[in-house]
Amino acid sequence: MQDHEGRVAIVTGGSSGIGRAAVLALARQGSAVVVHGLEADAARATAAEVIAVGGRAVAVSGPIQHPATAAEAVEVALSEFGSIDTLVTSAGIQRYGDVLATSDETWDEIFDVNVKGVFLAARAAMPHLRASAAGSLAIMSSVQAVATQADVAAYTASKGALNALARAMAVDEGRHGVRVNSILPGSVDTPMLRASARLLGGEEDADGVISTWGMAHVLERVGQPSEIGEAVAFVTGPRASFITGAELRVDGGLLARSAAPMPEGRVQDA
Description:
270 residues; alpha/beta; Rossmann fold; 2 domains; 8 helices
């Protein structure tokens, strides 16, 4: 299927993890892609993957919390491909700590990247999404915005803010024909997840930690980036044309399972 044939996308955080998977999924379905990454080499490497299989892609780099980075991504999209139809915001960072352990600097860093970066990218791209016949924005949030683990106060707050921002933009942009949705992955086998696993289990037991986390999901495994990339391609494509303001959970059933114990000796009635 070529749902994105002839379209042009910008993907922030597109050089690794879920962002890279979104780039590859959109390119497979026909989109030209501007690949943003913090590091230039990584962004160019992802763009080269697309080009190697006959797709169209170009790389840009820089801190997403700087207005100039979003402006450059938009300028490159217009100069290289002539329009912008899709924006996917996947750049993000994770830091640990409860409110007492979270410094001012850490709080600001997380909100600058995870929230301000989305705002800046959306503001820069929105006039062009409005001009598109199929403008769509997908914001990468997290299940942590709905049900949080311990010691991720700032990260969880940033993801909750993203869900609220997506709803606000969906309301504001609907009259312009632009759809805005947030995507809430569960645990996904990305460099970020593996870094967290190494913090807990060390390099030698990272796989074991990830396997344990996977068992919290109904499907008893963590997700793969490609599975989230496919959800991005769907929700920004024509088959999702009546979906906006939604929070799409792609979490392997993580949020579907109750943590409360069942009464012994019987199945609880609905």
